[in-house]
Amino acid sequence: MNTFARQLGFELLKLFARKRTYIGFIFFLAIELLILTHAQLPISRRRLENAMGPIPGFDLSSYFGGLTLAFQVIAWTMFTLGSVYLALVCGDIVSKEVEDGTMRMVLSRPVSRLRILVLKYLTCIVYTFLLASFVVLTSLGLSILFRGVGSGLVVVAPWERVTGVFAPGVGLERFGLASVVLTFCLLSISTVGFMFSCFNLKPATATVLTLSVYLFDDILRNLPVFADYRDDFLTHHTAIWQHFFEMSIPWPRIGESCAWLAVFDFVALGIGTFYFLRRDFKS
Amino acid sequence: MTILPAMIRLENLHKRFGRHVAVENLNLEIAEGALYGLLGHNGAGKSTTIGMMLGQVIPDRGRVLIDGRDVQRDRARALGPVGAIFETPAFYGYLSGRRNLEIFCSYGSPVTRAQMDEVIDVVRLSGRIDDPVRVYSHGMRQRLAVAQALLPRPRMLILDEPSEGLDPEGIYEMRELIRRLHVDYRLTILICSHLLAEVEQICAHVAIMRNGRLLFHGDWRAANPTATLEAFYLQTVKGIEA
Prior knowledge:
- The complex is a heterodimer of chains A (283) and B (242).
- Chain A is mainly alpha-helical and 283 residues long.
- Chain A has 12 helices and 2 strands.
- Chain A has one domain (2-277).
- A two-stranded antiparallel sheet of chain A has the order 1-2.
- In chain A, a hairpin with a 4-residue loop joins strand 1 and strand 2 (162-166).
- By secondary structure, chain B is an alpha/beta fold.
- Chain B has helices spanning 46-53, 75-78, 97-105, 113-122, 138-149, 168-184, 196-202, 220-223, 229-241; strands spanning 6-17, 20-31, 35-40, 61-66, 69-70, 82-85, 156-160, 188-193, 205-210, 213-219.
- In chain B, the strands form 2 sheets. Chain B has a 6-stranded mixed sheet, with helices on both faces. A 4-stranded antiparallel sheet of chain B has the order 2-1-4-5.
- The interface between A and B is medium-sized, with 28 and 37 residues.
């Protein structure tokens, strides 16, 4: 275990010693600041209120605080911008080492190919977790800093048919629960990137393919002709984290989507591993 | 005469890439303690053979045994006593030389700092080991590659074109280092090269490959005491062609 922990530590060092790893964190911070600064303008606030629509029996303006804004920021940015950085890092993680030649150096050491893959995938998990946590925490922190907690959390996400109004304490609790599942949802994008990274592809190709899979899936899911098959799309399940903001948490549906994603990840991981264990590494 | 056990045994190795047969039914034994040269033209199958020895290329048929262990089936233990360097050694350029050594060593048996410092000293990188590898010259990278191959202390070295890209001084240093490692550390060394003059100076035994096939293996001076290695190589290759 000590050896394994040491090897994992070095994998993380390899990842986090590279400047490009931080691009995602920096751009998320920048877009959060941009959205929140813009949200301070009265016109922007009115537009946001209009976009969220009226909720009968509630004075929306009193709920238009940090928690509400944080949800909007995460929902707008996480799966669009997030998918780019996850595809960039996880699509790179094996293929870049193969391209640079360091994988051959590693493979000349007495270590099994499977162990190398396990270490790489764990590194993807850590990166995904850190990116998701960073976005959730900075969105919450900055939103509260800009607008205070407010009277609570109002969630109106018509694209997922989610509506919820919560007191601040319950709202934060929901954020906590949602962020755990959010990481799990994002992990599916990372796993697709990892799978392509195991193939005999250039890092850029693995990244583009990962993004293509994710965006194609999202586009097809939203086409009316595929309305009957919505439940079978990856992006349908990766949006499940938003359902923690329904008034009553739909646990069966969340469980079903998590199981779907787990099977998806397992299959993608299996395909990538199968290929990696059988491929040749030559200069 | 003492017959030493085989450190490496290649049994009926066969590998093709698409229609191209890279290695064809290759059988070869390298005794423990030998300093062995693997020769051949570009595309002869040398690098594929080395790739199969290190478990990087998966043979279609046959097997590679290192110290009696099958590389495909028991990779982690079979490669335990092996150190290797390649034609263009690759490192994590954004990390220091020492950090690179620590990373590569983490995949093998534990290495103490004293052992690492000793090897760094042997390859004469002590003054620059904490610099990022991206600022290293080609010769320094090559010496760092030798250092990682020597950690933890292996019983066998596989060197794929170790002098490639080095200047004359670097080639001389590399040759002397190989000799020293063979004599002082009693390492079995396999050198894959197309620099015949280099191999001639250090290897008594060679294997000559052409188009994936083994044409000759053994003591080349015993086979033709009057010829240079270059003449012997050409004679072997052309003899087959004729």
